[in-house]
Every structure is written in C-alpha cells, then in structure tokens.
C-alpha cells in the first residue's frame, strides 16, 4: 500500500490563518447554497452524554460534492462549567475524508471553526431575512459563538447600536470590551434581558440555561424584527412563533428530532412543523424559496448547526493553509 498522508491544523495554525470576515461568510454561504440545491448529504446530529459532568458531545456528519468533495465528521464537546477550569465551553475536532475511498484527508482543531461558522450562519440568515436597514442588535449570551455572531452581523449591517447581555456580569463586560476593541465602536452592556432585546431590529438568543426557561418574552419583539434563538435549552415563550411571518431552519431533519434546542417545545406542540415551516435557509440562499419579502415581516431563524458549514470552512482553511505554508503533514498509513 502506498503511504497515506493527512493535513493537520492545530489551534495555533487556525489563528495564524487570520481568516477574514469575507472568507468565512463566503465559505459558509457556498455550503448553504450547495445544501439548498440538494448537492450535499447531511445526517441529523447525535449526542453522547458521558454522565460525569454537566455537558455532552455533539456528533455532526455530512458530505459536500465538488469542488469541496469531502465527507466530514465533527465532534464538539459542550460543557457549560468549563469556565471554572479555565477552558472554553466548547472544544471541537473535525475529520475530513475522501468520500469515495474513506481515506482521511485532514484533521483540524474545530473549536474556532464552530464559532466562526455559527456566527456566519446567523449573519447569512439575517442577510436574507432581516430588514436591510437594521441598525440595532440585541444579543444575549457571551460564549464562543457569540463573538462571531456579533462581528459578522456587524460586518453586514454596520449597526448604530449593539447591546449585549449574559448571565455573569464579568463575562458580559469582557465580551463587550473585546467587541468594542475589535469593532471600533461602543457596545452597550445591559443588566437584564428586556433592556437588551426590546425594540431591537435583530435579536440573537445564545444563552446558556441549565433547563428550559421562558426568559425572552414575545412582547419584547417589535414588528419587523428578525429573531435567532439557538440556545441548547429553550429561553423563549411558546407564543414566539405565533407572531412570525416566516419560520426558517438550517436543516429540518435535525431540527425535528432530538431532545435539545430552543424550539424543541414548538416542534413537539406542532407550532413548528413541515406545514408551518417556510424553508430551510439553504433553499433561500440557492434562490429556490423567497427570503424577506416586505419590511413589515417579522421572521425567525433557528439553526442547530450544520456539519456542511464545518466541512466547507475547514476546506477553505486548508486551501489557505497550503497557500501560506501553514500546518503539518502527518503520515496516517
């Protein structure tokens, strides 16, 4: 057998790539369009709960046709108490394979990939479903994905006002300080959910609740807003979907099953179903379904996280790494 080699990018390599906002958005949007055209395979995520800590593993699987031409599996640990150990709450690894032979092609630290692609999907959802003149962002949550939500949304909308809130005062202040430095504009820290989201043009809920709790009130959402709830445990009222003109998800297959997710109760009660669902985001990106059609629409986008986005962004990183001479080649066999 001929030797088999695979590319390896660790966390320092990923940082050295310095992926731009435009590069992250382009790779993610391309994967969404590919999914929308039916040129991808995606399987619903599965969960592994070790039972020894407050957390679980998500296992995501999928494949994209050419030009990416890769199958991939990402395993991401989601452990909410990791901050007590000085660790990120989410640590991830991505394996890419040749879809024709099963030969491993690459192994990447995917913690940053998870954060970046999550923020990119949030931003692309807003690109197609939010008002073009959206100028106020209300963001709840300060975990890793939160930074890229705000950064990539601001890249598209250049907000006049950004409000942030999270459960721990120190985390929300650190979050706001980092955003203020990196975005070059002030970020408002709020002490409660209501003052963060009420009246905002775009509302993102990325909270870290221990159990489903309806903290975000439907009455706070203004007409014409765009809302993205994606916390692992639901923070919204059951009535939230009642005020929406369009309900959009990233992948209906994985949204309709499983025990976790911000709209789990809405699926179980029938408020979100195949009949009430407007589209998957990929269908909108591919031009097969309409996005926002009027300024008066109030729209909701729920994303669970797509393996396809991980694969596409990982592929883009590998392409850039080869060009810049970053990373290592490991012998597999």
Automatic annotation (TrEMBL):
<dbReference type="InterPro" id="IPR036291">
    <property type="entry name" value="NAD(P)-bd_dom_sf"/>
</dbReference>
<dbReference type="GO" id="GO:0005737">
    <property type="term" value="C:cytoplasm"/>
</dbReference>
<dbReference type="InterPro" id="IPR023401">
    <property type="entry name" value="ODC_N"/>
</dbReference>
<dbReference type="Pfam" id="PF02423">
    <property type="entry name" value="OCD_Mu_crystall"/>
</dbReference>
<keyword id="KW-0456">Lyase</keyword>
<comment type="similarity">
    <text>Belongs to the ornithine cyclodeaminase/mu-crystallin family.</text>
</comment>
<dbReference type="InterPro" id="IPR003462">
    <property type="entry name" value="ODC_Mu_crystall"/>
</dbReference>
<protein>
    <submittedName>
        <fullName>Ornithine cyclodeaminase</fullName>
        <ecNumber>4.3.1.12</ecNumber>
    </submittedName>
</protein>
<dbReference type="GO" id="GO:0008473">
    <property type="term" value="F:ornithine cyclodeaminase activity"/>
</dbReference>
